[in-house]
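Data card: per-record layout.
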Amino acid sequence: MAGDAAATEQARVSMPDFLAVDFFCGAGGTTRGLIDAQGYVIAGVDKDDRCRDTYIRNNSNQKLDCEEPAFLNRDIFPRTGAYRDGEQGRLYKDLIELIAAKRRLAPEAPLLFAICAPCQPFTKLSRKELSDERKQGRERDSGLLRQAVKFVRRFKPEVVLSENVAGIRDPRYGGVWDDFKRSLDNLGYVTGTKTVCTSKFGVPQFRKRSILVAVRRDLMKEERFADLAQTELLVPLSDANAVVKSVKEAIAHLPPIAAGELHKTIPNHRARTLSEVNLKRLASAKPGQSNAYMSDTMDGDLSLGCHRRVNERVGVRCFTDVYTRMSPDRPSPTITTKCHSISNGRFGHYDTSQLRGISLREAAVLQSFPDDYVFHPKDRVDSVARMIGNAVPPKLAQFFAAYLVGSIKHEAQPVDG
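The structure for this 417-residue chain is written out next.
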């Protein structure tokens, strides 16, 4: 007990490498990465209160006072006559108080803003599949980055990190990403953006993401410029210290379970229930192969009728990843909010002795969450899968946070809060 108390006291007085606010924090993937990068997360901001328990219970800071980040359940938009749910003014007040308090504890630590807005407005999901209310929400959420710029302007953090889907720069989304970059440039930051694959940063998953990093120009190390004109920040495409990790290397330590089973002692190690025909499909599926096998199994043709009709009409096989197993020797495909469903991608377990999709625990590991990161409520499937699929991989956030702080050429000066 005395040793634990001494360790806690040592952590209590240790200084973090940086302070941070995690906008659109969700279940805490970015926050976990920031903490692992030796930062102190002051607060996470998200309008979805269903993430609160998961966020708070898993992300105690290891520096300063060892407290959990505040979870600010706020809508970042301003309140207007047309949009009554906006809480931008209240969020300003919250952050002014919280940032000032932590600045007093760590006056020399730079401030990092993580701004990883929800990616749904920039995905390929057809809008005709959405209700009118959800369409309006998607349209509004496409402006989240523009709203976040207001907080950068007000607090002037030394560094900014943003992550989103690879296709966010597509012109169909109205230039949102380029506008965000330009706004930071105009506020006195040196910025850089690239599309990276998470598998090159120690995440056992092929997941292409757009990364935008920014450092205040007055603090920028010269060696981090990407061009002679000193207009762009160099963005690494890989972590030189990371090793590409396969699915088997990542999840083989987790014990076998059956479809529909929740492991007795491992939280979130639960696989979705499968119908009899889907059990037959997986029984014939080989790791890493397409679903062409379904047309000729021991139980006959198990292809979906709708898929057969599309294949015949276009002359090629479509939807080749559904009802298939992951390859054990490669990183996993992109973990989505439907990662627990074999009908939504290559989410079958690589072990042919297990007739199931990957468990929620396995999906979290493939996102680079540690095994002790528990998602709540523990008895839910769809909501936990959504949190996992929407998360920023912690290892990706950890790398870029450390990279940004390492791009500052001298001790940062406190910013008035």
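Known properties of this structure: The longest helix spans residues 88-105. The domain at 11-240+392-405 is CATH 3.40.50.150 (Rossmann fold).

See the next section for split statistics.
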